[in-house]
Design goal:
Elements lengths: L1 H16 L6 H18 L3 E2 L2 E7 L5 E7 L5 E2 L2 E2 L1 H11 L3 H7 L3 H8 L8 H6 L4 H8 L4 E2 L24 H6 L9 H20 L1 H13 L6 H16 L5 H14 L4 H17 L8 H8 L7 H28 L11 H8 L3 H4 L3 H24 L3 H22 L6 H31 L10 H12 L5 H15 L6 H19 L3 H15 L7 H10 L3 H28 L4
Antiparallel strand pairs: 1-4, 2-3, 5-6
Helix pairs in contact: 2-20, 9-19, 9-20, 9-25, 10-12, 10-18, 11-13, 11-15, 12-13, 12-25, 13-15, 13-24, 13-25, 14-23, 14-24, 15-26, 18-19, 20-25, 22-23, 22-24, 22-26, 23-24, 24-26
Length: about 575
């Protein structure tokens, strides 16, 4: 009887360990719920903002709107009696009204209304925004007896009842514009998916993979570390991120054909780019912006960062190869072994005719190479971004389809091109939805604008306050840890710099480390964690291309993140020890 009980316990234990990883949609939903509950506990807060000028990486003067660290205040109700008194005094001061841009007659009419019903929206119409009044009169304009929370309703829209968290999918999808998350990224993912649907239908990539493996004769393993270095260089020089999505579509079948798994394909493309971003000495979107905001020479400390790039890139590539070789020797150990099955099946089932690498295939691959060079040139020299990149990839897919029709590759026709494009779009539609869902997390927290009341701003202020007075290395390490955690919800490098550096830079002075170290902590946290967070639109796009659920990716990536954090901690320690300037 006892042995049977033990047997049942053992069986139960084995079943427990085989529980399925939650779907990415489910994970994000529960994160949304957790963030919504957090808004009940943490009151909303905001900062005033101002525009600063700094010299960018091109030596030109750029501007950036950043928060003012000493202007944080919680959300309170208006003290209408005090506001009425202040406005009455203002109405007698023509010079002050002119300075603030307030119309004298409009103010006089406003003072004739019932002050008990005044709202901030009414004052905004006069040009007396919350920032203007706070800058003039401070906390005296508020009834500070109760801190207010900014908590979304359960259901609702902006037009009917206000934003409700159960509408996070739609609201997340429609945020931003054509050049950013989520609308721009979603559109890019769909266009790239359609274009590569055509390219994959031509059979050129598969034929090229077979030809490469046949000709390299065992030297193909050298391709992975070489590619890792190239993608890391892309991240370090021009902040490569979204550009990895189409590259991943090529790399996944290539890497699997070499005997590895799709996780290795994501590591050698997107993770490598974020490693480069984390230790960049010249990225215009991270280090240059952060240094400009921190008030230190842009691209200073480049020698230290360049050495760091060589070391961290080399060690990260070695980490990848240890994992990759383990999977090559025993493929079933991969957490995505089943998901990769259709790639392996397609490769193994290819006929001799499909393996033939003919002129049409060669022309398509050359055309793809030409467009990729065009894209890199456009991004680095002309400032091309999401709209232009999407257009370039559409051209790539269309041209590949035309070549396939001319050379009759896989029986391609005009209708076949259209069907292949449709199929490619359908394959990545689910990924585009995830991008919108992830953006919804930020909306539930109140958004990432420093001058709008939100739970996120209060968390930012609270962390900055906690770090006062701690020892130098501990303070620097906490900055690194904070930047890593903050990147779980705000993944834009320039956006995170604008939110955190105005607080972290003066905090570095108080802790006793250089502002250069504060910038390094920002870089490391923002770069490394971008390879993990489900809020990263670029990561979700690459995972969608590879067919990997975020939960399974996290199982692999959590160990790599620990490795990255160790490297980052050592880098911070060295920077503090040498007083990096």
């Amino acid at each position: 009887m006892l042995s049977k009980s033990k047997k049942e316990k053992g069986k139960t234990g084995r079943d427990f360990t085989k529980l399925k990883t939650p779907h990415t949609y489910a994970i994000i939903f529960f994160v949304v719920i957790a963030c919504w509950l957090l808004t009940f506990l943490v009151p909303a807060g905001k900062f005033s903002t101002h525009t600063i000028e700094y010299v960018d990486s091109n030596g030109e003067v750029s501007t950036r709107t950043v928060l003012m660290a000493d202007t944080f205040r919680y959300s309170y109700n208006l003290n209408t009696d005090a506001v009425q008194e202040f406005l009455t005094e203002m109405s007698q001061n023509d010079e002050l009204m002119e300075e603030l841009g307030v119309d004298k007659d409009a103010l006089a009419d406003f003072l004739g209304t019932d002050s008990s019903s005044w709202t901030q929206a009414d004052l905004d119409e006069l040009g007396l925004t919350d920032d203007v009044l706070y800058g003039q009169y401070g906390d005296a304009i508020y009834d500070t007896s109760q801190k207010l929370h900014k908590t979304a309703k359960i259901w609702g829209t902006e037009d009917f009842g206000g934003f409700g968290f159960l509408n996070y999918v739609f609201e997340g999808l429609v945020t931003g514009d054509r050049s950013g998350s989520a609308v721009g990224i979603c559109a890019l993912i769909l266009v790239v998916g359609g274009s590569f649907g055509i390219i994959m239908k031509t059979g050129a990539i598969d034929a090229g993979i077979y030809a490469f493996i046949e000709k390299t004769k065992g030297l193909e393993r050298l391709a992975l570390p070489c590619l890792f270095v190239l993608f890391s260089l892309g991240g370090a020089t021009f902040g490569m991120a979204e550009e990895c999505i189409p590259f991943a579509m090529i790399m996944v079948p290539f890497v699997i054909a070499l005997g590895y798994d799709s996780i290795v394909a994501v590591v050698v493309t997107y993770v490598a780019s974020q490693v480069g971003n984390a230790v960049s000495w010249m990225s215009p979107f991270s280090v240059a912006v952060a240094q400009g905001i921190a008030g230190i020479p842009v691209l200073s400390g480049a020698t230290f960062r360049l050495i760091l790039w060589f070391i961290v890139t080399g060690l990260s590539a070695a980490y990848m190869m240890v994992y990759a070789e383990r999977i090559r020797k025993e493929p079933t150990r991969s957490v995505v072994y089943q998901e990769d099955g259709h790639f392996r099946a397609r490769l193994s089932a290819a006929t001799s005719e499909e393996r033939e690498f003919n002129l049409g295939h060669k022309l398509i691959l050359l055309e793809m190479l030409a467009v990729l060079i065009w894209i890199i040139w456009g991004v680095t020299q002309k400032g091309y971004y999401i709209p232009e990149i999407a257009s370039q990839f559409f051209v790539m897919g269309f041209a590949a389809g035309v070549i396939a029709v001319i050379f009759k590759l896989n029986g391609m026709t005009i209708n076949g091109m259209a069907s292949a494009f449709q199929s490619g779009v359908a394959d990545l539609a689910g990924t585009a939805v995830v991008v919108g869902m992830a953006k919804g997390i930020l909306l539930v927290l109140g958004g990432s604008d420093a001058d709008t009341y939100s739970t996120l701003n209060t968390i930012l202020y609270g962390i900055g306050t906690v770090l006062h007075g701690v020892p130098a290395f501990i303070g620097a390490e906490f900055m690194y840890l904070f930047q890593s955690c903050f990147n779980l919800v705000v993944t834009s490098n320039s956006g995170q710099a604008a939110l955190t550096m105005p607080i972290m830079a003066p905090l570095a002075d108080l802790v006793g480390v250089s502002r250069q170290v504060a910038v390094l902590a920002f870089q490391l946290g923002a770069g490394f964690v971008d390879a993990f967070t489900p809020v990263s639109a670029s990561l979700i796009g690459v995972l969608g291309v590879a067919g990997i659920e975020w939960g399974k990716w996290a199982k692999f990536q959590i160990k790599m993140q620990a490795f990255f954090f160790l490297l980052g901690t050592i880098a911070i320690g060295v920077a503090v020890a040498i007083n990096l300037q």
